[in-house]
Amino acid sequence: MPYTTEEIEFVGGKVKLLDHDILLIQYEVNRNVVLSDVIALRDLREKLLGNKEYYPIVDLSRGIVSFSDEAKAWISVNKESSQCRIIDIFLVKGFIMKFKVKLYNTLYKPNNPLVIVTSLEKALEFIENDRRQKLSSGK
């Protein structure tokens, strides 16, 4: 599927394919994300990208989003899903969400590196720098 600015809805939120390997994920504001939500997202990601590597940008900047313990555990260690994600990028604006993302990283120790940014532009800049670094190192 080519890049699109079209939003595609799934149970719990919506996604946009910003580039061949960048998926912007927006959960519903004030949602308690449960395991079935993250599995629905995985199914949609497989439909859009297959199992190729990609950069997920999880946009939590529009308000408070909570994840159940079961959903956090599945996201952090599910090998099938983790091996496709290059780096987990969380877009946050407020202190509460930044704190929650850092706490998630500390408690659940996800398999993937985690980066926190404050704007979509900074997320895309980070991805571009990561791509350049990988090209220069031959990875």
Please give the number of β-strands.
Answer: 8
What spatial form do the alpha-carbon principal axes imply? Answer: globular
> Distance between termini?
25 Å
Largest sheet: 6 strands, mixed
Q: Any idea how many domains?
A: 1
CATH architecture group name: 2-Layer Sandwich
Number of H/I helices: 5
Averaged pLDDT: 87
Tell me the series of helices and strands, N- to C-terminal.
Answer: EEEEHEEHHEHEH
3D architecture notes:
Helices cover about 45% and strands about 25% of the residues. With about 140 residues, the protein is α/β, with parallel strands linked by helices. The chain has one domain: Transcription Regulator spoIIAA. Helix 1 runs parallel beside helix 2. The longest helix is centred in the C-terminal third of the chain and has 18 residues, at about 120-135. The radius of gyration is 14 Å and the shape is globular. The mean pLDDT is about 85.
Distinctive features:
139 residues; Transcription Regulator spoIIAA; 6-stranded mixed β-sheet; alpha/beta; globular
